[in-house]
Amino acid sequence: MARRYHQGQTVYAYYYNYSDEDQTTLVDCDSGYPKYTLTDSDGTAKVDAQAMTKTATGTYKYDTYDIPSDGTMGWWNELVEARTNTDITIIYDGFRVI
Asked: 17-49: per-residue pLDDT in tens?
């Protein structure tokens, strides 16, 4: 089931960067990555390619985004772009604002 948030709630975003070699070992991204983008259901970027904060080796978070009390209802899209050496990973996800 997709995540759901109500207008006025806070969104938390996390990213875990695993090694391509074994998919179990966490490794750090290149400097300035990963980047987080959040777009509302109208296609308006609410967070535009902002660097995520490293919390541990290979573990990152985007601090928070507060959905406005009059935020657009519907499906919001999330994109995380990560770079490790020459590898580029793009993750798409999202949630519904109800």
From this structure: 998 888 899 999 999 999 999 999 999 999 999
DSSP assignments along the chain, one per residue:
--EEE-TTPEEEEEEE-B-TTTSSSB-PPPTT--EEEEE-TTS-EEEEEEEPEEEETTEEEEEEEE--TTPPPEEEEEEEEEEETTEEEEEEEEEEE-
Q: How confident is the model at residue 1 (pLDDT cuts 50, 70, 90)?
A: low
Q: Judging by DSSP bridges, how do beta strands 3-5 and 87-97 pair with one another?
A: parallel
Domain that holds residue 38: 3-97
Q: Give the total number of structural domains in the chain.
A: 1
CATH of the domain at 17: 2.60.40.1930
pTM: 0.91
